[in-house]
């Protein structure tokens, strides 16, 4: 799935001269946490609710002469902004957010701001892609790291006419892979039995004997 499929196209923005008070009002009014700073359609920075809280006067230190909130956002905005492109993949956006510890990615195309995607957008999309928002069951196995092992295991689900919502493959112990299937089948005992009979080690659901039946 691509960024352009989930990004918000109507982006709330501010100009460098916008005051901190005005920016705070926008965040509260629209219940958002990030404001790209633009000059025309060119991105020049970004300011977040956290930036504004840290820049704002403390309740204990506030005085009638304090004009902190009348400063422009250009005085606190981050100028080096991590961005995405509409044709980037969702998983790449997730990686960027994780690596840089940021909560959003402005989306640029040919240097113009065309959208924004947030951490919440990415998490919601991943939940949908993994199928965990639907009634389903998880079956996880460990297989040798060889070509064709995923297809072999998937054949078991096919024989039981169990629709697979998602498949996640990640490294297991030495020379193995862990494969997590999410299936619409709610009764999975026979699927688990046949996976074990085919020689696969079951990691989930828990089974009393962890040795695959096919290895005996």
UniProtKB/TrEMBL annotation:
Protein known as: Acetoin utilization protein AcuB
The keyword Cell membrane is annotated on this UniProt entry: no
Species name: Planifilum fimeticola
Residue ranges occupied by any ACT domain in the UniProt entry: 138-210
PROSITE patterns: ACT, CBS
Residue stretches making up the CBS domain: 7-68, 77-136
PANTHER family from the UniProt entry: CBS DOMAIN-CONTAINING PROTEIN (PTHR43080:SF2), CBS DOMAIN-CONTAINING PROTEIN CBSX3, MITOCHONDRIAL (PTHR43080)
Keywords, sorted A to Z: CBS domain
Keyword Iron attributed: no
């Amino acid at each position: 799935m691509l960024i352009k499929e989930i990004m918000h196209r109507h982006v709330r923005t501010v100009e460098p001269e916008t005051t901190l008070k005005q920016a705070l009002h926008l965040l509260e009014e629209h219940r958002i946490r990030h404001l790209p700073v633009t000059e025309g359609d060119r991105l020049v920075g970004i300011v977040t609710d956290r930036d504004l809280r840290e820049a704002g006067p403390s309740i204990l230190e506030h005085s009638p002469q304090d004009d902190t909130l009348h400063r422009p956002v250009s005085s606190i905005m981050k100028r080096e902004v991590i961005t995405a492109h509409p044709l980037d993949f969702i998983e790449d956006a997730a990686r960027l957010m994780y690596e840089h510890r940021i909560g959003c990615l402005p989306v640029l195309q040919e240097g113009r701001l065309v959208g924004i995607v947030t951490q919440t957008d990415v998490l919601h999309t991943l939940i949908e892609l993994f199928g965990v928002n639907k009634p389903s069951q998880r079956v996880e196995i460990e297989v040798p790291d060889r070509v064709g092992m995923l297809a072999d295991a998937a054949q078991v689900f096919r024989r039981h006419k169990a629709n697979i919502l998602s498949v996640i493959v990640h490294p297991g112990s030495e020379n193995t892979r862990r494969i997590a299937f999410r299936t619409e089948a709610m009764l999975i005992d026979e699927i688990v039995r046949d996976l074990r009979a085919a020689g696969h080690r079951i990691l989930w659901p828990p089974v009393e004997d962890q040795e695959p039946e096919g290895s005996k």
